[in-house]
């Protein structure tokens, strides 16, 4: 049993959330629920990044005051919690006073590594990052957004990253800071070996249109959005406030500190963030879990391509658990994966309606027909128990390696095993009472375990299964329920 801090990245609120945002939140939620189920005490955090220049420009483009624009989009991101059935313990906004106080305190604690100088460079507003020319894509474009960076020249504050280059390399090489997957670790070590440079951590208040957090004792400058944003992980825990109990418990104490972030921002979390924490003398994260992207018909989601998938509409049409299932099963946890409505509906019908849903309806209906739905004390066979133990072991190993799609596939291995077992034993045709009771004992025991294993992935479905089975001390009192996943027509 441990104290576990788990966070998603915080999202820019320059536009409404899309399916890629949903993927990260769901993956982190699965981990949080799984850790809780193992008896750990978990603090699960998400939030919104509201002080970026891209938010300012998007508000200008929309013809709205920045605060009104940010507040409206924040509400959309916060609404994902209910829509996707997420179990956050806290949600932080970077415009909150608690966050501002923490960022300014961290700046002051890091002051020995902060200096001011004039600088000119290529800046991508989408990434909120300076790029060297050899880091750009062909045509001098940002490698992520494929837009031309702006040349910015001004006097700003810089952080002495080179002071921590060797230490950062060491913690990554030794897995003191474990980066998942391994391929991402190798990319970062290659980047470090190419030579780290001090990085800019402020911008002129004039360029920021007065929006953002003031540099302590210099209101002409706003704190760079990444120095600001990365601090959310400790500001939400009370760092810089009068009460730092949660901060001491979940960050400074004997805890596991895990960040779930997209692969495009791994560098900020594995290089800049640890350097800031080292400078401040604070504990480091233990694990950076770097997931891939959701593409649509093989293309990255983009407003210009008109292929943004709205998670709210998807949930409204198919339900939260169906959306969670697709993203967790179809999208490789450690890589990129594709979404199409055709793939979604095919997976829904085959795995949810015909697979899990049919097994649940079939099994419960047969127990009613056999008169075993009330006060039925099950006695599963050794073979059934051993099969489930084998699946549970693979399930836990998959979680340990952050292969969430593999863990979920183990649950469906059990679903398939139950279907085959029914086809072989044909319990409706059994005349011997003892044999029939053994078969139903094995099926109900397996169905209960399926419900339990599904909890991190599909909490509503898990609850429906377990409530319907109504098991206490090995005695089942089954109630009828609506189909878990009605089959989609014309698919």
What does this structure look like?
The protein is of the alpha/beta class and 491 residues long. The chain is built from 18 helices and 20 strands. It has helices at residues 19-37, 53-62, 66-78, 80-83, 97-109, 165-173, 182-193, 225-230, 232-235, 245-252, 266-280, 311-318, 320-330, 341-369, 382-400, 404-425, 433-454, 459-469, and strands at residues 3-8, 11-12, 41-49, 90-93, 114-124, 129-131, 150-159, 178-180, 199-200, 202-204, 214-215, 218-223, 255-262, 287-291, 294-296, 299-300, 337-339, 376-377, 471-472, 475-476. The strands form five sheets. Strands 1, 2, 3, 4, 8, 13 and 14 form a seven-stranded parallel β-sheet that branches. The relative contact order is 0.11. The model has no long low-confidence stretch (mean pLDDT 94).
Keywords, separated by commas or semicolons:
491 residues, alpha/beta, four-stranded antiparallel beta sheet, 18 helices, 18% strand
The average pLDDT is 94
Main sheet attributes: strand count, strand direction, barrel closure: 7 strands, parallel
Number of beta strands: 20
Strand content: 15-25%
Number of helical segments with 4 or more residues: 18
Global structural class: alpha/beta
3D shape: elongated
- Quote the distance from N terminus to C terminus: 46 Å
